[in-house]
What we know:
This protein is α+β, with helices and mostly antiparallel strands. It has helices at 7-14, 22-30, 37-45, 47-53, 67-77, 86-95, 104-111, 135-141, 196-201, 207-216, 219-223, 235-240, 250-258, 361-365; strands at 60-65, 97-98, 116-120, 149-155, 158-162, 168-178, 181-186, 228-233, 261-262, 276-278, 284-290, 293-296, 299-308, 311-316. It folds into two domains: 7-186, FAS1 domain (Roll); 196-373, Roll (FAS1 domain), CATH 2.30.180.10. Strands 2-1-7-6-5-4-3 form a seven-stranded mixed sheet. The two termini are 32 Å apart. Keywords: Signal.
Amino acid sequence: MIRPLSTAVCLAALLGHTAADTASDLTAALASDPSLSSMQQLVAQHPTLLNDLVKDNTAVTVFVPNNDALQAHTATAGRPLTDTPAALLASILAYHVVAAGLTSASFDSTFNSAKGITAPTLLTGEVYNNRTAGPELVAAYGTSAGGQVVYAERDDGGYTLQGGQAERINLTVVDKQWRRGYIQIVDRVLQLPKNCTATMNEQASLKTLSTSLADTGAYDSIDTARDVTCLAPSNEAFEAAGNPQKKLNSTELTWLIRSHVLKQPLYLDLIKDGMVFQSLRNTTIKVTKKGDDIYFNNAKVVQPNVLTNNGVVYVLDKVLENNSAVSPTTPDDPSGTDSAPSSTSSKSWGSGRPDVGKGLLLVAALGTVWAHFT
């Protein structure tokens, strides 16, 4: 897990300064870099947003979009960020502020042992953060761990930062200091995390899933669930398995869906080889790492760590087989590894091939049976 800058060091830098100084402090820090002049102007025009966001004695790191990033955002959104409604602008700013002082040393020490790091931001509220901090994030960030997360990753000698919509943007680590922590630079404006169905609707690869969800009329039940990891076979995985979602009765479909959902957000840097979990159906799911590849039981992850407002999605190349031979690490019910209904066989659903491209039919099926989860 990441090693944030010492709280004592950050507090020392904050002595004698109030929250009302925050916007002016950041504006002054940005003034020395011409590539950040657009963000400097935005902060100067909306000082109360940042002052309300960053409280006294809060050590933070701001991921500042450069001028090109704000210009690209204007082209995409159809208006400059400065014209964004205040509530939305506050959320966007909050998602660019991490609740810790992060430096190159923080990144390098973490990346020596892990490919990426999950860090909580100051973005809160159920619209964008319908989840809670797990024990790992609390251990690393303390009381600041509750905000929606971003994911930083080493990539081809540089760094990337991931927010909502599975978009990865380039992160330039410059360790620029200001009174409340550090500034790092990004080349795009982070997209805010959305609920599951909105995430699917905005990605071309998930159109089949989106259509299936519309057919079930189950958007609300999916989008209001909290703290979940969905292990989601791709379209090709279901096709290779004989399209079981088209053949199962309600009981069988319930078994299949619950076997693919973990009741906690399992972010990529928290995954370790040999971890064992119970699904919502009390089937056993074991993690195996082979180099950079991750497997849940028999299925390989082909698209990891898709952040939503209520957790995370992993796209798989196969439908999961029931691995009841292993005991869960922290079992709620050690004897509760169900068998599939007699008319179907989970073992017969194990073939498939990697393909990120078409979507998550498993979650689409969720619409008809989500009520059975509780």
